[in-house]
Design a protein that fits this description.
By secondary structure, the protein is mainly β. The chain folds into two domains: 5-195, Jelly Rolls (Sandwich); 201-276, Immunoglobulin-like (Sandwich), CATH 2.60.40. Helix content is 0%, strand content 52%. It has no helices and 20 strands. The strands form four sheets. Strands 1, 2, 5, 6, 7, 8, 9, 10, 11, 12 and 13 form an eleven-stranded mixed β-sheet that branches.
């Protein structure tokens, strides 16, 4: 895994629980399994808006884990409503409880002569055939490298999911497609939230002093956490980066949530609330 970034733009605060991925729950979520449909490929179990003349979905060897990711290409030769690249999945996953979030890795770049990028992720869970509130995450921000995205699902219980992923024009645009987008997606996973009865390594890690002037020391880290993301109360990312010498700096005043990230053991990822009173 090289040059990876962490981001958490839509964010659910968890203090006493730790997320663990449900490996393999989303069919072909690692985008390793593909099937040929006439003269083009699709991820196994997914529907794509392609045909024999227009291919928009590709296996790509640029990946976070495994051999492949999925690369989605919008087509500027189509009208604005048709130039987008889209994949869909409807799947019965069996009874699941305490699903805290869905996560994936994303790389997002404009194509040549594009005015920008657009990416949309939509997941609607169902329980016993009844639709529940969907999770929606959208961005017009470029990501030069694979970036970790986590979208909360509110510790839901469900047994079926519908997922729609779109790369292409900004919704409501008319005329020619103006945002030709290339999107790479990898390691799409559901994350279950389980209570931790026994103390773990993360229980002894603390940001201090708190409150502070924006300079925090991560005591008890011992190499567990190597990156961090700072979120404001609205879930927006203020800053993120590598943890160097167990020091974290926040430049703005206010109340923030610092997500501590472990590249070696993501289930230890944790969140601490901090206050910056002066700079």
């Amino acid at each position: 895994m090289k040059n990876l970034l962490f981001a958490n733009f839509v964010f659910c605060t968890i203090f006493f629980f730790a997320p663990n991925s449900i490996t393999g729950q989303i069919q072909s979520g690692g985008f390793e399994d593909w099937e040929m449909i006439e003269n083009y490929y699709e991820p196994l179990g997914w529907d794509t808006e392609q045909n024999t003349l227009l291919q928009r979905i590709f296996m790509d060897t640029l990946s976070v884990d495994g051999d492949f990711s999925i690369r989605m290409e919008s087509n500027p030769e189509e009208s604005a409503e048709n130039c987008r690249s889209q994949i869909d999945l409807s799947q019965n996953i069996g009874p699941q409880e305490n699903i805290g979030s869905v996560s994936f890795w994303l790389r997002l770049l404009p194509q040549a002569n594009s005015s920008g990028v657009f990416f949309s992720f939509f997941l609607r869970p169902k329980l016993n055939g009844q639709s529940m509130s969907p999770a929606i995450w959208q961005t017009t921000t470029e990501y030069q490298e694979f970036t970790y995205i986590e979208v909360p699902l509110g510790n839901s219980a469900f047994d079926e999911i519908y997922i729609e992923i779109v790369a292409g024009p900004i919704p409501g645009s008319s005329g020619d497609c103006s945002s030709y987008t290339s999107a790479w997606v990898d390691d799409l996973e559901l994350n279950v939230t389980t209570a931790t009865e026994d103390a773990t390594k993360s229980d002894f890690v603390l940001l201090s002093p708190n409150p502070s002037n924006g300079q925090f020391f991560l005591s008890g880290n011992d190499g567990i956490y190597d990156q961090y993301a700072v979120m404001n109360s609205l879930g927006g990312v203020v800053e993120y980066g590598k943890i160097v010498n167990n020091n974290i700096s926040i430049k703005e005043k206010g109340i923030f949530f610092v997500k501590l990230l472990s590249s070696s053991d993501p289930k230890l990822n944790s969140v601490q609330k901090v206050v910056v009173i002066s700079n």
